[in-house]
Amino acid sequence: MSYGYAGKVLRVNLTDKNIIEESIEKYSHWIGGRCLATLILSQIPSLSSEEPGDQPLVVSVGPLVGTGIPLGVRTSVAARSQISGGVFYSNVGGDFGTRMKMAGYDAVVVEGKSESPVYLFLKGATAELISAEYLWGLRISDLQQSLYEKYTDNDLSFIGIGPAGERGATISCLMVDQAHAAGWGGSGAILGAKGLKAIVAMGDRQLPVFDSEGLAQKSQQLIWRMNNSEALMTLTRLGTHGMVAAGGHNKKVPTSVNNLKDEFLPSDENLPLREETYRPWEVARSGCIGCGIRCLHKYDVPSERHGNIKAEGMHANSVRGLGTNLGVQNTEDVLMLHYLCNEYGLDVDAVSAVIAFALECADHGVLERSQPGEVHLQWGDRSLVELVRQIGERIGLGELLSEGVHEAAQKLGSGSESFAMTIKKVGVNEGSMRSHKAWALGIITSTRGAGHLGGSPQTENRRISAEAGQRILGNPSAGVPDSYEGKGKLVAWTDCLKAVIDSLGLCYFAYGWYDLSFGNLDELAELFYVATGIKISGKDLLERGLQTHTVERYLGYRLAGFSRKDDQPPVRLYDVPVSAGEYQDAHLDREMVERELEAYYAYLGWDVETGLPTEGRLIDLGLGSLLEDTL
Ligand code: SF4
Which residues have any ligand 1 atom within 6 Å of their CB? Predict the structure, then answer.
């Protein structure tokens, strides 16, 4: 099993500073990346601890990372969610996964907590804990700068936390270098409670692959096909920002408006947030290590409102969540809000949801409009920039909001719960849930709470033809946004595919999402084979995805009690239709959602009444160990 893998899983206990290595052979069934991270997590009893410092966190990369296969760059993180109480996975780009693997490790498991701040340093297949007293309190760009100064080497990358995580903000995330966020579960607060500022990896070791000639050939073919894919060329040209935010490439993509009250904005109101408005400030394109698509923008803005802003990594969710969902129309304000989220290590989607919640609370008199620090709770107000600072530092109103929408609503009471746009307690920042049915179902059923990077396919956004839908997915309605037909099954399949892609370490933007032709499971199995020498069929690969998704679902049930009753959108999406535009009157239909939920569970082999895997199903899937009372 040495081909394609670095060969080692590192286990670090921060309490007693014990560091041990395990052979990756021990986990041979579990591919790597998200699949491996989820399995390891499920085996650690302290996962059920209520104390984030005592909970484990796993960082893992897949077998295709660092092999030279295009876009084999992604890193998975798995831990207990500080927001939902269940588990979450993050999948993040940047250089870290490649560097970690080249430094000698396929996965790092962190347990316990350190009495004083440390960082974990990986290089040359050795690991060392180093004092991080001098790094504690630094924002992400200063952390990067400081590490670059200490290790004058270009081969360094880190995954770490900013001040928000250090201070225990539930909606904090991990950052890979300056521009890549691993969000969704408050992972920043976990590392903060552990006293672990970062994992730093320096690596340039060549990774052995099984068939280097075959791999080079396949890589060449993939690059050629990617260069000729209309969808991926659009991604190269516009990034996700230009593709799907502020109206997107066709000026028709819906957005979230003022705490999900609507999905429609007139085009003149979208204009300040469109990608072309930012283009004059673009100084470079950026991306993950070795990726030719380079879907990220680097901006340098001489802003009179905020001073010079040097921002990178703004994806569609920042534009939607920090722009239209908060009523922010000022181009520079959106960029500054995004920049501050990255600097403090805050999860953009969660920040969007909790500020939108606060603004609606102010509209209904639950919160005062005027807040300390000259924060004015008004849609689109410039002082929302100050509010993000307060969330990052956990001061003023930011202290309450740093706990996320659900917790803030619980504490505020006074009817504020009806302004809390959450699924499984996780704040929602989404733009097409009324109008795009499979998209919505993917978010509703997400094991980590909300979020479309799981079961939500791009088929509706891409409007794939009935012929392509039938040929590739066996569903001629796959590209029809307003149709529920076959969408439950499509979403369940997409959930499994996404778990496969995350486990291999590939970037989902190319492999299967924006261009379905790169999500062919037999082809993915061939890539796995040339890298590792391990023969597996596309069907078996999909079964690994199903296993991963099932473990995550079951852990959500065991830890937080999540089941079918929790697979529900905010009621606003049923009751308040889109006001105008191409999707005027669109809303979710309760009966149809329930019908497709049943189809979703049935495809996965879960019980349709409870939405949970039965004991028998867990045993069939080789997951019987989950039934032991270890958590
Ligand atoms: S497409 Fe974007 S996110 Fe994916 S690997 Fe390339 S630069 Fe990274």
Answer: 71, 73, 93, 287-288, 291, 293-296, 507, 509-510
pLDDT tens digit sequence for 42-55: 999 999 999 999 99
Beta-strand pair 196-202/118-123: parallel
Nearest CA to ligand 1 atom 8: 288
Task: Tell me how far CA of residue 351 lies from CA of 79, 322, 402, 413, in angstroms.
Answer: 20, 8, 8, 20
- Indicate if the alpha-carbon torsion angle 332, 335, 339, 341 is positive or negative: positive
CA 463/CA 477 separation, integer angstroms: 10
Q: What is the residue with the minimal CA distance to atom 4 of ligand 1? A: 507
Residues whose CB is less than 8 angstroms from the CB of residue 41 and which lie 6 or more positions away in sequence, other chains included:
47, 56, 58, 78, 79, 87, 555
Class of domain 229-427: mainly alpha
SS3 121: strand
CA 73 from centroid of its chain's CA atoms: 15
CA distance 327 to 256: 10
Distance from residue 286's CA to the centre of ligand 1 (Å): 9
What residue has token string 């993950």?
A: 288
Residue-range domain boundaries for the chain? 8-202, 229-427, 437-564+587-627
pLDDT at residue 253, as a whole number = 87
d(CA 255, CA 94): 27
* pTM of the model as a whole: 0.97
State whether CATH 1.10.599.10 applies to domain 437-564+587-627.
Answer: yes
When pLDDT is cut at 50, 70 and 90, the band that residue 31 belongs to is very high
What residue spans of 511-606 are helical by DSSP H?
521-532, 538-560, 572-575, 590-604
pLDDT tens, position by position, 385-422: 999 999 999 999 999 999 999 999 999 999 999 999 99
End-to-end Cα spacing for the chain: 30
Per-residue pLDDT band for 152 (boundaries 50, 70, 90) equals confident
> Please, which residues bridge with residue 19 across strands?
12
8-202 belongs to CATH 3.40.50.150: no
